Each structure stands twice: as C-alpha cells, then as structure tokens.
Amino acid sequence: MERLTLQETLQIVQLYYENGRSVKSVNRALRPIYAVDESFAEDPEESIRRRSQQLAGLSYGTTWAILRKDIGLKAYKIQSVQELTPGDLPKPHNFSFRALGKLAEDPHFGTQIVSSDEGLFGLIATDWATAGIYKSRQRLYDLYAEKSYNHNEEFILYVRNYSKLFKKVCYAAKSLNIKNKIKNSTNKTKMTWKLIDSETGRVRDRNQDIELCVDNTIIKSNEEIAIVFDKYFSDIPISTTKSLQSSPALAESLLKDNVNECKVSFSFRPISADDIARIFRTIDIKNTTDLWGISVKIISSIIDEIAPHLAIIFNNCIKSGEFPDLMKHSKVIPLFKAGSMSDPSNFRPISVLPTCSKIFEKIILNQLVSHFNVNKLLHNNQFGFTKGRSTADAGVELYRYIVKAWEESHDALGGFCDLSKAFDCVQHETLIGKLRHYGIKNTALNLLTSYLHGRTQKVEVNGKRSSGSAVDMGVPQGSILGPFLFFCLYK
C-alpha cells in the first residue's frame, strides 16, 4: 500500500486544524499512517483531539514514548528519529502536529523498510516473533512511558523484571526458530551457514553496483558489464584447457582396459503426471526466477494442473531422445567472491536453469542413479549419489584411516586434489564415451547427448542482460543432473 510522506501528513493535519477541513477529506489520507486508536477510522477529529489532551501535562519522556507509538515508529525504521531527543519536542501543553516538522526532512518516512534486529525491540518483519511477543513488547513500551513519571520503587522493579523476562522470551523464540529452520531444511549444513552469515551481517547483496576495469577502461553500464562477464565466463573453459592434450579415444581405451563394460542396456522409463508432481515436491522451493521469469515457487502453485502436460512433453523427449532447446538456456548471475570488485576474475558464475528443466533433470537423475546402484557401477569409496551415504561419511572414513594409522604407529598421508573449473571443463565426447561404457546407449544416450549440446547462457547484471553466448564445454553448473554427470566422467 502506498503511504503518504510525513510532510504530506503534516500538511493535511495542519490544514485540518487551521482551515476547518471536513472529517471526510482527511480520513482516507490519515487512516493508513496515523491510526492513533481504534476509533480513528470512525471519528478522526475526536480521536486526534482526545490524543492531544492525553499528551497535555505529561513529562517529556512520557510524551516522547507516546509520540513514538503514535507516528508509527514501531512499524518503521527511520535513522534520523534515533537522533531526535525529548528535548527537541515542544512543551506538552503547546503540543501541535507542527512540532514534528523536524522529521519531515526524512525521505524514508512512509516507506516500509525491513529493520535489522537491533536489540530486542527490532521485531519488524521477523519470522520468529509471535503475536504474544508483539503484545508483550507493546506492554513494555507502555510501562516505560509510565516509568518516566511513576517513580514508585515497586513499580520500577516490576518494569525491570518484565523487561528481563521479555528478553528471555525473545531469545528463546529466536533460538527455537533457528533450530526449526535447520531441522526442516534439506541441506542442514548450507542452512546453518546461511543463518550464520545472516546473523553476522555477512550476506552480500547480489544487486550491488559493479564497476569493472578492462584494459584500463572503467565500465559502469550494467549492460556492458553483462557483456564483459558473458565473454569472460564463456572463455574460461578454453583458457583453462588450451594447454591440455585431451583425447576422447584414449580415455575410452583406458576405460575399457581397466573397467568392465556394463552388459545391461539402460533406457529411460515413461513417467506419469503423478510421478512428476511427486518428484517436483522434492525440489527446494525458491523464489529465484529463470530466464523466462518463472520460479519453483510459482510452479509449486500450479504443478497439479500442468503435470499432465509436462508428462506428455517429457515422454515425447524420452521417446525421441531429444532434450527441449528452450530448457537449455540459462541465466547467469555474477557473484562476488573476494578481492577487487573491478576484476572479473573475482566473480563466480551462478547459473539459474529453467524451472521446468529441473523437474525433467530430477526424473533423469533418479533413473540413472537406480541403474548405477542396481548394476553396482559405483565404487565402494563413492559417497556422493549413493543411497545411505553422504559426504559426511567420507569425512568419517578419512578419520577412521587416520586413527588406524596412529594406533599402528604408522604415518597417515592424505592427497587432496582441487580441479580448477572442473564443471566448466568437462569434455562432452569423453563423457558420452564413458556413459556408453556404463550401458547407456541408443535413445537414452541420445537424450543425454542432446542435454549437453546446444546450450546457451545470458549474464544478468541488475536487470540488464547480455545477448548470450554458446556453451560448448562442461556440464551445467547449478543443475540437478550436472554433478552426477561430472561424477560419471571422473569415476
């Protein structure tokens, strides 16, 4: 709802008092921002008059507390208000709305802004504060207001104890909310770090202003920056692999000499609308939109209606061995890592694939993993994509080897490899050859080949996009199927 600025509100109220404007002329304008009490909507004149009388004769502290409540500071965060002291207000008996004129210069008044959790009163737009907490907070406001003129020792002690209890309840509610978020998340480690970053203020704004320096030229235009990033990201695989002499034929020959070929020929099974709806509900619900402006959250509201149509499309793709071209276009967002923000190499690409593609990829992945598990194509030390195992088990296994070596008075040595731009540098022909060796042939292999070939990307920077470029190497980052295909290559 669009709200009036404080200046506009002050003008309306002042005109109302000085020029005798009718109640109806100000009711509509004042109601959204100056709801002083429950009777305001029915009789704003009487409501404002009564509130002014209540302020008369009260101390500065009490006036300030009530004023904060009246003008909606509990619902808005305004930096300049924190600098306004009770001494800046007029004498209570001369109270007038014109006294708020100092705030009129603040451009943020009337604009709803999510407040940071400063202290225990920063409950604005929080997902952990219950209705009871909000009610208790308002009670605490009222107690603080009364405390400014009620100096009874028992009352002051009561306010102090109430404040301590309120803080304890807030801490408990927030702690429970964090625990539930971690407990209910599909990726607990990721959610834990997300919460840590959020609480410590380390969350970066993806829409921050970027200025690049290319060939001693400063680039500020978002569209030009998107073009620079597009070229840089598409050149990464070429520059990384130009010194390598890869041979798909040699890789396939080594594979045949060391790994037995799977004799079971794999083919994708047709799927039903119920399968699609069920599989879709295993995908994380996010608001991130793809190149077409569609998010998983949007699809979640209509999945039951579109599932039959998607089943027809996906089954035709399985039958023909062709992956839809429109599902091969990705949106790439450059995410700053560290270092200088003017250097493109300090950004990593975050790919957002078409939402419907995620559903189809999940279907393909489930059937591929089943084939690998049934035919025991996974290595004993493979922890990813293995039922009942996770990367945490890999850490446990490493720890077990270290402890065993220590108990036997042996040295424990570990070799760790970090593959530079690993996903970006996957050779398609080598990967296709390996998939064929694992029993994926004919139409099934054609579908995966089609999935890899003919992909494009467009870089987006603050709403501006590049014209796009072809992606001739690698497996799609950010995809559901990509990590498994990468594993197949390096297995």
TrEMBL record:
Pfam family, one: RVT_1
PROSITE patterns for the chain: RT_POL
Domain Reverse transcriptase: 316-491
Top-level taxon: Eukaryota
SUPFAM superfamilies registered for this protein in UniProt: DNA/RNA polymerases (SSF56672)
GO biological process assignments: DNA biosynthetic process
Entry-linked InterPro entries: DNA/RNA_pol_sf (IPR043502), RT_dom (IPR000477)
PANTHER family xrefs: REVERSE TRANSCRIPTASES (PTHR19446)
Designated name of the protein: Reverse transcriptase domain-containing protein
Organismal lineage: Eukaryota, Metazoa, Ecdysozoa, Arthropoda, Hexapoda
